[in-house]
Design goal:
The structure is a single chain. This protein has a four-stranded mixed sheet with strand order 1-4-5-7, with helices on one face. A three-stranded antiparallel sheet has the order 2-3-6, with no helix packed on it. It is an alpha+beta fold. The radius of gyration is 20 Å and the shape is globular. The chain has eleven helices and nine strands. The chain folds into two domains: about 170 residues, Butyryl-Coa Dehydrogenase, subunit A, domain 1 (Orthogonal Bundle), CATH 1.10.540; about 150 residues, Butyryl-CoA Dehydrogenase, subunit A, domain 3. α8 packs antiparallel against α9.
């Protein structure tokens, strides 16, 4: 077994045991307990991207991508994915590492303050890296208004700071945080989509209609085939975006991954719920945990339309024929 597979398998086993679906529901309803993030911090996985010289694992992006997909497959309600990147960036700049959970979003300055819309994991994060016109700023969620406004209905909320926090920290190194965010949300979508496929296959094999499992009906088989195609296309796109070492991702591959992942969300959710029938939307059944995540993550840092436009602009700027441009993206040319 490779070290990459060993790490991802160990993380999967730990995550399934620590954050089962009942714990995920409890966090969504009542908010995260400090012990929840403490468990993540103590596990060491938040420092997976951190260089070994700073006490981390120095893992490559392929390993991190597998871990992120596992987060999506478990509907983890904590911002582990974004925390990994931000902690590694902070360490590289020589900042003290606080054991805080960190999310990532775009923002805009409003008079003396900052406003952010629909911030993923804002209900459970302690800090947020806000992408503003003048750079990336780390702001405390506790100082913002609106952090508790929608608790119980989801993890993404609007945040508003009336005045710019005095404790705000600006990251100096010019990382393409938007591209990084696109790649990691694509990986989360891939993980949640894979769980929708697994649940759908299991249910279709167990559910009996007219004396036989519904998985034996041609119409259901056709839909499950489409679902599988979409899931594995998203997985491949996310894997392409997360390759190599360090923190940087190819912005073109990140755009491709997020565009493909976001585009697939509607059909993945629709087919998953079609196979399950009415049971899929009930609170007691796990399917809705993942389909809600899919629709939330689809819009984070831009939907498929935004990233398709980004990718199209990159093609126009390159002045290459389309086929050569695509070959260059995948490294096949």
């Amino acid at each position: 077994m490779s070290i990459d597979r060993f790490i991802s398998d160990a993380f999967s086993q730990w995550l399934e045991a620590t954050f089962d679906s009942q714990r995920v529901r409890a966090i969504e309803q009542d908010g995260a307990d400090p012990a929840d993030w403490q468990a993540v911090s103590d596990s060491g996985f938040a420092d997976l991207l951190l260089a070994e010289q700073y006490g981390g694992a120095g893992a490559n992006l392929e390993t991190v991508g597998e871990v992120l997909q596992t987060c999506g497959a478990c509907a983890l309600p904590l911002p582990l994915a974004t925390t990994m990147w931000v902690r590694a960036a902070l360490a590289a700049e020589g900042h003290e590492l606080l054991p805080a959970s960190i999310t990532l979003t775009r923002g805009q300055r409003v008079e003396k303050g900052v406003k952010c819309h629909d911030v993923a994991f804002a209900a459970t994060a302690e800090q947020v890296l806000v992408l503003l016109d003048d750079g990336a700023w780390l702001l405390p969620v506790a100082d913002a208004q609106g952090a508790d406004a929608q608790r119980g209905t989801g993890l993404s909320v609007d945040l508003y700071w009336k005045t710019f926090p005095a404790s705000a920290l600006k990251l100096k190194q010019p990382h393409d945080w938007e591209a990084i965010g696109a790649a990691l949300f694509a990986a989360l979508i891939a993980g949640a989509a894979s769980r929708v496929l697994k649940l759908s296959l299991n249910y279709a094999a167990e559910r009996q209609q007219f004396g036989k499992p519904i998985a034996r009906f041609q119409a259901v088989q056709q839909q499950l085939s489409v679902l599988a195609e979409e899931v594995y296309a998203v997985r491949m796109a996310a894997q392409l975006a997360l390759r190599g070492n360090g923190l940087a991702v190819d912005p073109r591959l990140a755009a491709l991954a997020k565009a493909r992942a976001s585009q697939a969300v509607s059909s993945i959710g629709a087919i998953g719920h079609m196979v399950h029938g009415a049971i899929g939307i009930t609170e007691e059944y796990d399917l809705q945990l993942y389909t809600r995540r899919l629709h939330d993550w689809r819009l984070q840092l831009g939907s498929e339309r935004y990233w398709q436009q980004r990718l199209g602009q990159a093609l126009l700027d390159s002045e290459l024929p389309v086929l050569d441009f695509m070959r260059g993206l995948t490294g096949s040319g």
